[in-house]
Write a structure and sequence with these properties.
By secondary structure, the chain is mainly α. The chain has 8 helices and 2 strands, in the order αααββααααα. The protein has helices at 3-24, 29-53, 59-86, 106-128, 137-158, 164-169, 173-199, 201-205; strands at 93-95, 98-100. The chain has a two-stranded antiparallel sheet. Helix 2 (29-53) packs antiparallel against helix 5. The longest helix is centred in the middle third of the chain and has 28 residues, at 59-86. The radius of gyration is 18 Å and the shape is globular.
Length: 208
């Protein structure tokens, strides 16, 4: 197994470890979850780059690289929904008389998961017709912002395990950044999915 594929497989392993860490309630479990997700995100950055630079592109990598990304992102959002139901989100900010809590709502996760399933289904349909649908710029941007949103949420979750002076430095700007990143990630997810389905509409309309 070449290096890019090893990184892809390691992302799947770290996803499983991340889910255990964030749901275990172990001491420093949230900090460990933050480190695992950050490391897994880095493998997403480097496996494709290394494969292209060293000409190590394989069918396994073409299939599993985007699948591992979707598993990581969707798993994180689903886990954060459950965490939000079980525990109050640490950190709030006030916008006039409005108190905003940085929290992943279930409907946000539904949009994200539905988008990934729809695009995966479209690519499978294209593959059955021997057509390869390339990723688009909007899709890459949404993945970046999804990861930023998850990391800021994990920092908020983990901050209660850190020294008071360090967690104090995160207020009040981090909750605001988290909410902005989360809403931007959801918006880009919906917009990029809509654009992708519209531009490739001939692929599925022909079979309807």
């Amino acid at each position: 197994m070449n290096l890019p594929n090893q990184l892809t497989v390691s992302r799947l392993v770290m996803t499983a470890a991340f889910l255990w860490a964030i749901m275990s309630r172990a001491r420093f479990g949230d900090t460990f979850a933050l480190l695992l997700f950050s490391a897994a995100s880095l493998t997403d950055l480097y496996d494709g780059r290394i494969a292209r630079q060293r000409k190590l592109i394989t069918n396994f990598g073409i299939l599993m690289d985007p699948l591992a990304d979707k598993i990581l992102i969707c798993s994180a959002f689903i886990a954060l929904v459950e965490r939000g139901l079980l525990t109050p989100q640490p950190g709030v900010f006030e916008l006039g008389s409005l108190v905003v809590r940085p929290r992943v709502e279930a409907w946000m996760t539904v949009i994200i998961v539905a988008r990934e399933l729809a695009i995966t289904g479209l690519r499978l349909l294209a593959a059955s017709k021997n057509v390869v649908l390339a990723a688009e710029r909007y899709g890459k941007h949404k993945t970046i912002w999804q990861m930023i949103a998850i990391i800021t949420l994990l920092v908020l979750e983990a901050s209660h395990e850190w020294p008071a002076w360090l967690s104090g430095l995160l207020q009040p700007w981090l909750p605001l950044l988290t909410v902005l990143a989360l809403w931007l990630a959801v918006a880009l997810t919906a917009i990029s999915g809509g654009f992708y389905l519209w531009r490739n509409r001939e692929m599925y309309l022909a079979d309807m």
